[in-house]
Design a protein that fits this description.
Blueprint lengths: L15 H19 L4 H11 L5 H12 L5 H6 L20
The structure holds iron/sulfur cluster.
The site of iron/sulfur cluster (SF4) has 11 residues, from α3.
């Protein structure tokens, strides 16, 4: 057992003001980043980053980003990254009969 495990000092809790400030910074960074995203995909990205998208929409936004917003449907559909946590839930998959 090391000395760090004996430390009983309470961890400072995040205050509402600190959380609001952090959220504001994230939103500003996301807004700046989103300017590099093609307009067609931008709203979904911003909705996902803001935590206002469904899990399915959020995965879609991540897959769109992952393929660089180019040839999105075919590249995501044909994704071969079986080890990606999103793989089974990625959009644009062809439905099996
Ligand atoms: S499933 Fe494929 S396209 Fe989607 S995030 Fe993972 S690697 Fe990228």
């Amino acid at each position: 057992m090391n000395d760090a495990s004996k430390d009983t000092t309470p961890t400072p809790k995040s205050t509402p003001n600190a959380r609001a400030s952090e959220a504001s910074e994230i939103n500003e960074a996301a807004a700046r980043y989103s300017e590099s995203i093609p307009i067609k995909f931008r709203n979904l990205y911003l909705k996902a980053v803001a935590g206002k998208a469904s899990p399915r929409q959020t995965i879609k936004a991540k897959c769109q980003e992952c393929v660089g917003y180019e040839e999105v449907v075919s590249r995501v559909r044909n994704c071969s990254s079986l080890i990606c946590p999103n793989y089974a839930f990625r959009p644009y998959q062809e439905r099996s009969q």
